[in-house]
C-alpha cells in the first residue's frame, strides 16, 4: 500500500520550528529541549532549507569544541546535505532515504523548494504500527465473519 508523506503531515500538522543560519547553538539546544524535538531545519531568508541541526549535531560540536560551543551558530554545525521529500512521495521511499543517510528527520518541500513540513522516523514508525494494527483487526474480523474461527475439526477417514 503506497501512502504519501502528505498523510503524515495531515495527521501531525505541517507547522515546523526553524532557525536561521546565524542562530546560536546554545539557543538551538534550548529550543530543542523546550519543544521536545530532535532537530530543526535551518532556513535562509528566502525560506529555503540550507541545513539541519539535530541533537547529534550539537553533541558532535560539543565533543569537538567543548566550552567554545557557545561561540558557534547553526551554520557552523548544521548538516548541509539533508535528504528532503515531497508531499506526494511514498513514506517507504522516505524511510529508505533516512536509512541511507543515517538521518532521523527529513524536511518536506513544496515544488518551489520551500519548507512545508518535517517527517521524523518516529512519525513513520507510528504510521506503520497503526497500519499493522488495522490489518490485524481486519484479518481477525474476516476470519470470524467467515466462521473459520469456529469450525470443528473433522474426524480422520479410515
From TrEMBL:
InterPro entries: CBS_dom (IPR000644), CBS_dom_sf (IPR046342), CBSX3_CBS_dom (IPR044725), Diverse_CBS-Domain (IPR051257)
Superkingdom to which the source organism belongs: Bacteria
Keywords: CBS domain
Gene3D superfamilies assigned: CBS-domain
Record flagged with keyword S-adenosyl-L-methionine: no
SUPFAM superfamilies noted in UniProt: CBS-domain pair
Protein name in the entry: CBS domain-containing protein
Higher taxonomy: Bacteria, Pseudomonadati, Pseudomonadota, Alphaproteobacteria, Acetobacterales
